[in-house]
């Protein structure tokens, strides 16, 4: 729900903005702006929101978070109105357009706040009405630098063919609206005799559309519970594999028993029944055989399975530990989000993926970087980035992937000491290789992969062109869900 014209007038009358100095500008979101002001009543925070369905301006009594990176409009305002004085603050008739006249040194600026639910905006002009900048640049409305904005003037055009445009400067009579009433005790922590600014601030904190606490908390639940469910399912699959690999010693025992009974195995036997010298004396055991293999090869087969299971068990334990740590972190983050009572702060935390410190990519490394289960995946988006990554940012044992038969990105998986690349990470990188290639629209494709040390540059060839050797092939079906999860793991650059 947005403010009506009577409520806007009441808010402005309570604040008495003329004579206040603007000391600071904070743009906590693309559609939320706050001015730190100081005047007769002391310091205060004046909030302007052009959020669809929750357009308003009022004094806020809640802490307002800063954005992690400077936003364009806030940086513009800092250069024009910070340390300026508000000389005038009024609504133009009943149009829900508020004009603030601000003097900074010898310059005067007009800051127009249009609180229309489906076309809200903040526009800054000079004294002639020339637009200097706008919070939302709207070319169809002419609301961009260099345009003209003078809402004080209403243009009326007749339908007669010979009619001329007539500019009318007096606005029409205000329509009848009522100031919203709040039942006693309907707003938590707000006294019945509180100012309308206090009441409206509290009301929007509880019910304010996109910035409503309950709506944001529900968004947090959906986002984090979905991620936790997917991670939980993955951990369950790993635990099943751990149970399977936990019987690795049995495989070695089977190999020993087969090798001790080679003479008793005849060609084509599907089972070996022999004494189990690892159990109680006299115990027998039946071991499945591969009829097409020789007796010695039967034992080697079980030894090979034992070695794989033993090595795989160590990797699975490491993945389980990482996954359980990640799950605990998600649970803690969700609990912290649900405890947040400031909607603006919660809005920011959700944008920053729960307020965790955003991982920073090496500022000199080109392309896109993704951190997935402690593995770093790098994507070069064009020939120049591919070449730069090959020359300066990858090493011989890093894995290289590239879509087959289609031009596109080079994707690299950075090596981890003593670790082989898990299938899940290979599929992640494969999805990125197909997605960032010309074969994206096919939804699937083949790719090459090989260590970087097996790439050979083409002499006098185009930038980044290489010929792979000892490459392997992989067929990838693009998975939308996997790509969405990878987007959550993308590392942002400074």
Describe this structure as you would to a colleague.
Among the domains are: 5-151, Roll (ibrinogen binding protein from staphylococcus aureus fold); 368-488, no CATH class. It has ten helices and 21 strands. It has helices at residues 5-15, 72-80, 196-207, 213-245, 248-260, 295-339, 343-351, 383-392, 423-435, 480-488; strands spanning 21-29, 32-39, 42-49, 56-60, 85-91, 97-104, 107-114, 121-125, 131-134, 154-156, 166-168, 271-275, 284-288, 368-372, 375-380, 399-403, 410-413, 444-451, 455-457, 466-468, 472-477. The strands form six sheets. The protein has a six-stranded antiparallel sheet. The protein has a five-stranded antiparallel sheet with strand order 5-6-7-8-9, with helices on one face. α4 runs antiparallel to α6 (295-339). The relative contact order is 0.08. Residues 155-171 and 356-361 have low confidence and may be disordered.
